[in-house]
Amino acid sequence: MKRVLQIxxxxxxxxxxxxxxxxxxxxxxxxxxxxxPLLIGxxxxxxxxxxxxxxxxxxxxxxxxKPTILLFYRGGWCPFCNAQLSxxxxxxxxxxxxxxxxxxxxxxxxxxxxKTSKDKNLGYELISDYQLKATRQxxxxxxxxxxxxxxxxxxxxxxxxxxxxxxxxLPVPAVFILDTDGVIQFQYVNPNYKVRIKPELLLxxxxxxxxx
Length: 212
What we know:
Order of helices and strands: HEEHEHHEHEHEHEEEH
Radius of gyration: 16 Å
Family: Belongs to the peroxiredoxin family. BCP/PrxQ subfamily.
Helix content: 25-40%
Distance between the termini: 7 Å
Pfam family, one: AhpC-TSA
Mean pLDDT: 89
CATH class: Alpha Beta
Enzyme class: oxidoreductase
Shape: globular
Protein name: thioredoxin-dependent peroxiredoxin
Oligomer: single chain
Strand order of the largest sheet: 2-1-5-4-3-8-9
Keywords: Antioxidant, Disulfide bond, Oxidoreductase, Peroxidase, Redox-active center
């Protein structure tokens, strides 16, 4: 089963540079093609994030409850992210029927998450990573240019910065499937933020991840 998922992963993430695997995954890079995401067989680190209500949120404790589909997106200001959030919402019942919980993480503040959830009528949980802990620990962090940051601001968006960093940081959009031990069974990471995993493929990967 894991071999099948590894083959799928290799095909889907072929756009990532080979050199990315040698990087410290927590490093914030200047090119999204050079991120070094966690891979199949590696474990999600423990970290404290925040719910949409602003309450502390232990990622590992949550992962221990059920197999998890974990989605990283850039923010509620991103039209491609919003389209993906809605697509995932359409298959949420199928995901839940397989025994999964669904979580979506972004650098948005808790209040921004509340707005996104309400506007998109989402039934799954949005988690705030405004301190960029998860973005870095999962190896997805990259700097954006000042010019692009101004473009984000022009459409009402807001990006996050690490303490002492003069550049804004975003996550490369990604999907991870994890078991209750927090071990990654599947991942899809594409530095082209306009390309997202199709819901049908996600459902297939989720089914395969449950097989022994």
